Amino acid sequence: MQSQEAKYMAVVKWVMEQIQSGVFKTGDKLPSENELSREFELSRQTVRHAIDVLEQKNMLTRIRGSGTYLGVGIREVRKERYQNIAVISTYVDSYIFPPVLKGIEKTLSKAGYTMQVAFTGNRIEKEGEILDKLLEKGFIDGLIVEPAKSALPNPNLDSYRRLAKRQLPVLFFNSSYPQLQFPCVALHDELVARKAVEYLIRAGHRRIGGIFKCDDGQGHLRYLGFIKAMKQAGLGIDRRGIVWIDTESQNDLEAWSDYLFNRLKDCTALVCYNDEVAYLLSGICMKRGILIPEDLSLVSIDNSELASLGEVSITSFPHPMEALGKKAAENMIRMIENPYFDGNYLFDSEAVERNSIRVRV
């Protein structure tokens, strides 16, 4: 007589064989408990135990009132449609966001969707208010959002989880909260920062510093790329030459100028978090009699109009801007149509060369 373990293991092994052979794929619905009971001539209790075991192995997801599906975090396709997408952005007037929002709007409109937009000012309390309103009376098919201060602990994560439980797709852009497993469309920040350091190394620089943002996830990824490139080149990392700023100090960089240049005085080149930082820094350098690129070379990220506005135009790696918005909207539409679609996408970038780099012999 078969043991209880052997009985339920027959179902477990059969499901795993179907997955390995490609008969079952992620998102496929498992036969009902009644169907498995008849097929294996087992009690529903034994079949239920087998499903429990497979669920503990992260192979199945139960959806109440719908059934059991292959994969983790699977959700049932929503039937109602409002043809409306909510978009939350940190800023409305920064050089990055108007093109991003333009790309989102054009793509959604072409597909028959309307767009409702809200702005957080990169403040988590404002983000929370917006999410509460969406949860209360959203009438939306999905949410595209740039997280507020994505590198810091955030009290709004449960609100995002509640949206997901309502089977609403959520897609981040530019950055994401690491605690949430939602897809993200962004610049490949780590890779681009590595390329920026490598660009300076090819120009003969060895004492390279960096200014990074501490409260946004992009800053941490760009710092990671910076460190990896320096180590790959066998260069020592002077911790004094790495400066962290936040959103507020970036807006008043000149007030920190004594501190900045005390930290950066031994650097011949600098990777700037973005064009705004590079532009402000170059203006402070000019007031202090520090010549760019003769005394200090700068390379930046975004390739915005700010890269060309200063006394010396700045070499910069382009942010995809409108293309990023277009991709985010395209991926959101696909996530609505297919809940199992992977909406992640990272953009590469290459330097646009200008006059801010001195080649050292």
UniProtKB/TrEMBL annotation:
Keyword set, alphabetical order: DNA-binding, Transcription, Transcription regulation
Pfam families tied to this protein: GntR (PF00392), Peripla_BP_3 (PF13377)
SMART domains, per database record: HTH_GNTR
InterPro entries registered for this protein in UniProt: AraR_ligand_bind_dom, LacI/GalR-like_sensor, Peripla_BP_I, Tscrpt_reg_HTH_GntR, WH-like_DNA-bd_sf, WH_DNA-bd_sf
Superkingdom of origin: Bacteria
Every HTH gntR-type domain range: 5-73
PANTHER family: ARABINOSE METABOLISM TRANSCRIPTIONAL REPRESSOR, LACI-RELATED TRANSCRIPTIONAL REPRESSOR
Protein name: GntR family transcriptional regulator
